[in-house]
Structures are given as C-alpha cells and as structure tokens.
Amino acid sequence: MNYKAWFQCIDEQCGQTYPLNEIVYKCKSCGNLLEVMHDMELLKKKSPKEWKELFDSRYRRQSWPFGSSVWGKKEWVCPYVESENVVSMYEGATNLFWAERFGKQVGIEDIWLKMCGNSHTGSFKDLGMTVLVSVVKQMMSEGTDIPAVACASTGDTSAALAAYCASAAIPSIVFLPKDKVSIAQLVQPLSNGALVLSIDTDFDGCMELVQRICTEHNIYLANSINSLRIEGQKTISIELCQQFQWDLPDWVIIPGGNLGNISALGKGFLMMYELGLINKLPRLVCAQAQQANPLYLSYLKGFKEFHPVKAKTTFASAIQIGNPVSVNKAIRILKRFDGIVEQASENELADAAAMVDKTGTFNCPHTGVALAVFLKLKEKKVIKPSDKIVIISTAHGLKFVEFKIGYHKDQFEGLNPHFSNRPIELPCDFDAVKDAVFSNIQAS
Hints:
Layout: E1 5-9, E2 17-18, E3 34-38, H1 40-43, H2 48-58, H3 74-77, E4 96-98, H4 100-106, E5 111-115, H5 125-141, E6 149-152, H6 156-168, E7 172-177, H7 183-191, E8 195-199, H8 203-217, E9 220-221, H9 228-233, H10 235-243, E10 251-255, H11 260-274, E11 283-289, H12 294-300, H13 327-336, E12 340-344, H14 346-357, H15 365-379, E13 389-393, H16 401-408, H17 430-440
Helix pairs in contact: 5-6, 6-7, 10-11, 11-13, 14-15
C-alpha cells in the first residue's frame, strides 16, 4: 500500500500541513510546533494481528532495512524514505532488563529497565536520528540543497548526529556548551568527523544559535524541535510492548529535559491504541532534575502556566535544560495519559543510580533521575507493589565515568554518597591483601 505521512501543526484550530521533504520546523501560519501525521485509515486496512505478525517477522532480522527496530516499523514511522536511502545502524532492539534483584530490595518484583543506552552511539537518540538523517539523504537524492545538518546538544544528540551523518557522508555541525559535556560525549562527534563548536554558554544558548544559523543558511536542524526525531523515538513504546508479547506495563517512567522523549513515548502508545494493538494506555511519568525543573513547576500548578527557568548545573547534564522546545507536546501527552511530573535532587539521583548499579546494571545519571522518581512515587504509595513498571534508561553509563568515579571516591562537594565503593590502596604484601579481603568481603 502507498502509506502516507506529513507534517501538521499541533494546534488543531490551525491544522496547517506540509510535506516531509519541506524544510520546516514550526508552523508558518501560527508558529506552533509540527508533528508527523499518518494516514490512519490506510493503516487500519491491516488488522492488529497482521501488524503484530509483520513487526514480529522483521524483528532482529537481516533483511534491509527492517532488521532495525525503527525501520521494522517503517509504515508507522516514515514511509516517505526509500529503502536505499535509509541510514541505519541496526538501532533499537535494546534489552528490556528484568531488574529482579533491585525489585526485591524495594518490594516490587515486576520492574523493568529499558536499556536504550545499549545502542550504536550509547543512547536512545539513535532512534530519532536514523529517521532524520534518512529523510535528509532522501531529500538530497531528490535534488534539495542541504549543505550540512546541525544540532545543539548536551552530548548524546551530537554523538548520534555525527555517527549517522558520517555513515551517510553528510557534513554535520554540533553546538556544545563549553565544559558541560563529558569527555566520552565530546570525543564521539570529534571521532566521527563533525565540526564541533564548543560555545561559552549553556544548552539554551546553543539552541538559540543553531536555530538562527539553520534558518539563515539552509542548514538542516536536527534537534527535537524537528518532529522527525519523535517518529523514531516513539518506537520505544512499540518495542517494549512487543517484548512483552504485546502486553502493557502499568507505568512508564522517563527522564525529561527538552521533552521530546515523553512526547514520543506517548505518541507510540496512542498509535498502537488507535490501531487496536493495545486496548488501554499506561500511566506516564516525566522525571526532571530539581536543578532544571520547569515542567515540574508547571505541573504543580496544573499546567495552567509554564515559565522557562535558568537551568542550574546537574549531574544529569543531558536534561540540564530550562526552556524545553517540546513543552506543549509534552503537556498535551501528560494530560492524555493522566501523567505525573516529579523531580529528583542531586543526592537522590546519584544514590539511585549507584543503588541500581549494585544490582548489576551501569546507569547514566539521567536514568538515576528516573529511578529516584520511581522510589519517591513508591514511597508515596502512588505506585503499588503489584504494578508493572518500566523505567527508560536513556544512555550508557560509560559516557559518564567522571560522574561515577567522583561519586564512589566522594569527590563532589555537598554530596553524601550512601552507596560509594572506594578502591582500597594496598602495598604489594600478601598479608595486607588477605586482611583487606576478609575484613571487607560481603555476600553478593
């Protein structure tokens, strides 16, 4: 079938539409954000059973490009792109990890971590970037002049953009806030040949600059203000249901910074619901760092108003954003899902990440925010012991080794690390080693 998708203004009273091969990020009529819309009536010509069988038949196979968990759902994501123009790193299909030991510690057995950091560049950003860069390659094949693709980033977006553009031989430019990304995050775009601009400002300042240069010079913008990113990221919802044999969790908790991720998560669930693959919706929770919490402050007032904040320094650097571009989409999704916004302090997020690491994972600080929020909601009895919970782990812990070592060596002023595990320095002496082993050994 000739499946169709297009950009459409999120304001229902406006409803202006644009083709996917038009370089446009906001509605030209009213200035609101756009979203990708699909011809749902055409998609409904397949039954829910047929869609499930099709997606399952492609999952983790090697038939190009459908082995990717994003492109295995191509009809729902971006049917516009021809398969030869897909730029894919076999993204998705990440582990839905049963956190059994952690669950027993906190009294909830049915708790799962969706390990999105087990991806090509180490974060969930790959899911959206494969769609965006593929559309750029498709447009270029049609004769559109796009000199480069650019993004502002706190680390993970720049890594994904640089890798996918390098694979497609498309120039990439990343705007990074100087000294505010980890070494591991900085080296990724450098290694993949991106033009890296380290700018003396924060993420919001980088975002302002990249939008201006893209607007004035026809450079393609790759931030989540571009709704193509959401199309790839929404497959997290579809994939985790697929991994549960098309069953649903009761709760999904995800960190929120620029708020494209919570918007994408909800969109994936709504699409499955409308097409009949699921018969109910989960509750969604957006977890924010207390140091960068504009959505949380709006939630406390029933979303009646929203005010940007000046984001303060947080270990969860990727969500250190005070003026999120996708706020209107996020609020709309949270209202639809009876959603909750909660925050976590620096000590709470650091301890939560370390606590779960001790049960066998290796979490990023942003996942720590989501874990801390989970623990708060459990303590408040909002989440019940019988509930099934999925926590979205957004990036690999190896991107944040400075945070990890600083925590365990107690190097952060004002932090009280309850789960620190310091290395024990010893002379090369057998008796000293034996004493250290038997005085410190603990049952696993």
